[in-house]
Design a protein that fits this description.
- The structure is a single chain.
- Strands 1, 2, 3, 6, 7, 8, 9, 10 and 11 form a 9-stranded mixed beta sheet that branches.
- It is built from 10 helices and 11 strands.
- The protein has 272 residues and is an alpha/beta fold.
- 37% of the residues lie in helices and 20% in strands.
- It has one domain (21-271): Protocatechuate 4,5-dioxygenase, Chain B.
- It starts with 20 loop residues before the first helix and ends with a strand.
- It has helices spanning 21-31, 52-64, 105-113, 122-125, 134-140, 159-171, 191-206, 210-219, 227-239, 254-257; strands spanning 44-47, 71-77, 86-88, 94-96, 99-101, 118-119, 145-151, 177-182, 187-189, 245-252, 263-271.
C-alpha cells in the first residue's frame, strides 16, 4: 500500500475568506442566517464563489436551506487554465483553517473509471471556486466528504454525456449525494444590466433546462463563469429525477461596495 496522499493546502484562505479557524467560525456565524426554513432534500445547489464579503451570505443562505448529506460532488469552472478540461481531485483531503475534509473515494473512482474524468491536481492547487464553499459545507455537516471537479471551456455537445456519467456514478452509490455547482453570474457590467441578463439564465435553472441555460448564456453574452458546470449539473440533476429549481437569493457586489456601475452578480439556487 502506498503512502497516503498529502492534503491540498488552502489556496485563498486569508484572502477570499478568513485565514484562521477562529476567524472562520466568527465569519460563518455572521453569514449563516439566524433563522431559516427547515432544510429540504435537493439534488443540486448552485452557489457563488467570490470573496465571502461579497457573496458569502448568499452562499450560506443557500446551504442553510438544503440538507447537506455525507457526500457532495462539487463542479466548478477552471479559472487558472491549468490541467485537463475535466479535472478531478482524488488526492488527499482538503485542508481548511482548523479542519480537513476527506475525499469520497468510491464516487471519485467511479467517475475516473468512466474515462471522462481525469485525475489531476494542477487544476485545483490554486483554484478558488470550490475552496470558498467547502468551509460552509463543513459547517453544515462536519462529516461531509467531497469530490472536487473543475471544468474548462467545453462545448454543449460534451455536457449531456458528462451529466449522464455524473448521475449514474451518483446512483450507483448507497448514500445520497448533493451536486454543488459553483458559479458567479454576470461580471463587470452595470447592476441593472446584470440583473436583467442573469434573470434569463436563472429562469433556465428554475426550469431544469441545461440546453436552454447554455444557449441563453451564449446568445445573450452573459459572463456567467460557471455556466458549463451548471449545464453539466443540470443534465445530471434531470437524469436523477429533478424537475424544478428555486432561486434562494440574488445580489451583486454593488450591494456591498456601493459601486453599481461595474458589478459581479451572485445567485443561490436549489434544484429538486
Amino acid at each position: 500500500m502506498g503512502a497516503p496522499s498529502p492534503p491540498r493546502a488552502p489556496a485563498v484562505a486569508g484572502r477570499f475568506y478568513p485565514g484562521s479557524a477562529a476567524e472562520v467560525q466568527r465569519a460563518l456565524a455572521a453569514l449563516f442566517p439566524a433563522e431559516a426554513p427547515p432544510p429540504v432534500e435537493a439534488t443540486m445547489a448552485l452557489c457563488p464563489h467570490a470573496g465571502w464579503i461579497y457573496s458569502g451570505a448568499i452562499c450560506a443562505e443557500t446551504l442553510a436551506r438544503v440538507h447537506v448529506p455525507g457526500t457532495c460532488l462539487m463542479l466548478g469552472p477552471n479559472h487558472t487554465g491549468l490541467g485537463p478540461a475535466v479535472s478531478l481531485w482524488r488526492g488527499g483531503p482538503w485542508a481548511l483553517p482548523g479542519a480537513r475534509v476527506p475525499i469520497d473515494r468510491g464516487l471519485a473512482e467511479r467517475l475516473v473509471a468512466s474515462g471522462a474524468f481525469t485525475p489531476d491536481e494542477a487544476a485545483h492547487r490554486f483554484e478558488h471556486c470550490l475552496e470558498v464553499i467547502v468551509p460552509m459545507l463543513y459547517a453544515r455537516n462536519p462529516d461531509v466528504r467531497i469530490v472536487p471537479v473543475v471544468l474548462g471551456p467545453l462545448a454543449l455537445a460534451d455536457a449531456p454525456d458528462l451529466g449522464a456519467i455524473v448521475a449514474d456514478a451518483v446512483a450507483a452509490g448507497d448514500e445520497p449525494v448533493l451536486l454543488v455547482v459553483s458559479s458567479d453570474m454576470s461580471h463587470y457590467v452595470p447592476a441593472d444590466l446584470a440583473r436583467r441578463k442573469d434573470a434569463l439564465a436563472l429562469a433556465r435553472i428554475e426550469a431544469v433546462d441545461p440546453e436552454g441555460l447554455f444557449r441563453t448564456v451564449v446568445a445573450h453574452e452573459i459572463s456567467m463563469c460557471g455556466f458549463v458546470p451548471a449545464t453539466v449539473g443540470l443534465f445530471a440533476a434531470r437524469r436523477l429525477g429533478a424537475t424544478r429549481g428555486t432561486i434562494v437569493r440574488y445580489g451583486t457586489s454593488g450591494d456591498t461596495s456601493g459601486d453599481l456601475d461595474r458589478v459581479v452578480g451572485y445567485a443561490g439556487a436549489l434544484v429538486r
